[in-house]
Amino acid sequence: MANLTSMSGFLLMGFSDDHKLQILHALLFLVIYLLALTGNLLIITITTLDRHLHSPMYYFLKHLSLLDLCFISVTVPQSIANSLMNNGYISLGQCILQVFFFIALASSEVAILTVMSYDRYVAICQPLQYETTMDPWACRQAVIAVWVTGGLSGLTHTAINFSVPLCGDRVIHQFFCDVPQMLKLACSYEFINEIAVAAFTTSTAFFCLISILLSYTRIFSAVLRIPSAQGRTKVFSTCLPHLLVVTFFLSAAGFEFLRPPSDSQSAMDFMFSIFYTVVPPTLNPVIYSLRNKAMKAALRKVLSKEEFAQRKKYFKAIFQL
């Protein structure tokens, strides 16, 4: 441990020093990662192939799945490799890239969830203006803004986080390069940097949260005026999955980034980090597919033997050209 001061990288402590428990952790993370990979790839495939799902809502859902796929790939594979090799070392370059992509993708996810809530608001509260407001050009611009916003957020956080000199043992009590944990390693803990990071993150998340709350306040007030129970059920079937995803992701991330810093690391801290880094990308496909009849119908269609045979003939004909 004493030699860590001369290293340019960091030591990720992970969940346990016992190699057998590390193997167990690697296997569990591998199963979760494969489930997230499969679920999100299915949604991307379904929303791309099924013409009935070529609407703004499913267009944004496809990008949410793409973000989830990238988001979980930033931390979990590295953690699996470290556990299997019984070596928690991560180089400085790898840590910088991990922080950048983690913050960028997390910020993009919050932004896409905000855009999705606005899409539901226009569809339910302003149905006559929906096709005009959410036309293909506007949807593409919204998605571009989501990715650009995430990239700028990632650059800002990475620049601030790695601008402060680090001292002592470069030990991060987490299974990835977590920003709150890395701020504890600063030689002189500059308060202005902490305020800058916290203010930027909090203000962005707060703006998105307020936008989402306003959208759903208007949505629910409109839903209550729908006379038929069937109409209300149809609206809730498209809104509740999104609301569950927003609540789960923002509450877990908010606890991690806004709680007071502590010198000790508990099992609860690891659990909350899993709740906002690993669980949302895994559960999002399940939540959206189980609560959405169109998604379930499209999934059955894509997985059916007839559809598979038709796609096989289609790709075979393409390769023969």
TrEMBL record:
<keyword id="KW-0716">Sensory transduction</keyword>
<feature type="transmembrane region" description="Helical">
    <location>
        <begin position="58"/>
        <end position="76"/>
    </location>
</feature>
<keyword id="KW-0675">Receptor</keyword>
<dbReference type="InterPro" id="IPR000725">
    <property type="entry name" value="Olfact_rcpt"/>
</dbReference>
<feature type="transmembrane region" description="Helical">
    <location>
        <begin position="26"/>
        <end position="46"/>
    </location>
</feature>
<feature type="transmembrane region" description="Helical">
    <location>
        <begin position="137"/>
        <end position="160"/>
    </location>
</feature>
<feature type="transmembrane region" description="Helical">
    <location>
        <begin position="191"/>
        <end position="214"/>
    </location>
</feature>
<keyword id="KW-0807">Transducer</keyword>
<feature type="domain" description="G-protein coupled receptors family 1 profile">
    <location>
        <begin position="39"/>
        <end position="288"/>
    </location>
</feature>
<dbReference type="InterPro" id="IPR050516">
    <property type="entry name" value="Olfactory_GPCR"/>
</dbReference>
<dbReference type="GO" id="GO:0004930">
    <property type="term" value="F:G protein-coupled receptor activity"/>
</dbReference>
<keyword id="KW-0552">Olfaction</keyword>
<keyword id="KW-1003">Cell membrane</keyword>
<feature type="transmembrane region" description="Helical">
    <location>
        <begin position="270"/>
        <end position="290"/>
    </location>
</feature>
<dbReference type="InterPro" id="IPR017452">
    <property type="entry name" value="GPCR_Rhodpsn_7TM"/>
</dbReference>
<dbReference type="GO" id="GO:0004984">
    <property type="term" value="F:olfactory receptor activity"/>
</dbReference>
<dbReference type="GO" id="GO:0005886">
    <property type="term" value="C:plasma membrane"/>
</dbReference>
<feature type="transmembrane region" description="Helical">
    <location>
        <begin position="235"/>
        <end position="258"/>
    </location>
</feature>
<keyword id="KW-1133">Transmembrane helix</keyword>
<comment type="similarity">
    <text>Belongs to the G-protein coupled receptor 1 family.</text>
</comment>
<dbReference type="InterPro" id="IPR000276">
    <property type="entry name" value="GPCR_Rhodpsn"/>
</dbReference>
<comment type="function">
    <text>Odorant receptor.</text>
</comment>
<dbReference type="Pfam" id="PF13853">
    <property type="entry name" value="7tm_4"/>
</dbReference>
<keyword id="KW-0297">G-protein coupled receptor</keyword>
<protein>
    <recommendedName>
        <fullName>Olfactory receptor</fullName>
    </recommendedName>
</protein>
<keyword id="KW-0472">Membrane</keyword>
<comment type="function">
    <text>Putative odorant or sperm cell receptor.</text>
</comment>
<dbReference type="GO" id="GO:0005549">
    <property type="term" value="F:odorant binding"/>
</dbReference>
<feature type="transmembrane region" description="Helical">
    <location>
        <begin position="96"/>
        <end position="116"/>
    </location>
</feature>
<keyword id="KW-0812">Transmembrane</keyword>
